[in-house]
Design brief:
rod-shaped, single chain, mainly alpha, 0% strand
């Protein structure tokens, strides 16, 4: 039986990475923050594992890597959704200003 410790931050990275994917549709902000934190904590856990691999379990390094990957996916989706929202706001802003400038006085 494997009695090695779990990596600190590996579960946090996984949870934040998973949360970053569905929350990317919250105007891109929540997913962006969760994605950045998931990548940060995933990198920290991976560095700890590389420094002392025999101390930590192999399952926890898998969690850290999965959290980092989910964080990257959530970060990319959040950025894309944020850019989409900016384009939509700009298009509606231009359309509304064109309509208002054509109204009779």
């Amino acid at each position: 039986m494997d009695y090695r410790k779990n990596l600190p931050y590996s579960t946090v990275s996984l949870v934040l990475g998973i949360i970053s994917i569905p929350t990317c549709f919250c105007y891109g902000i929540v997913g962006l923050v969760c994605g950045i934190l998931a990548i940060k904590y995933g990198n920290k856990a991976i560095k700890m594992y590389k420094y002392n691999p025999e101390e930590y379990s192999s399952g926890s390094i898998g969690n850290a890597k999965a959290g980092k990957i989910c964080g990257i996916v959530g970060l990319i989706l959040s950025i894309l959704f944020f850019l989409y929202m900016l384009v939509v706001i700009l298009i509606y802003g231009v359309a509304i200003s064109a309509i208002l400038s054509n109204l009779p006085n």
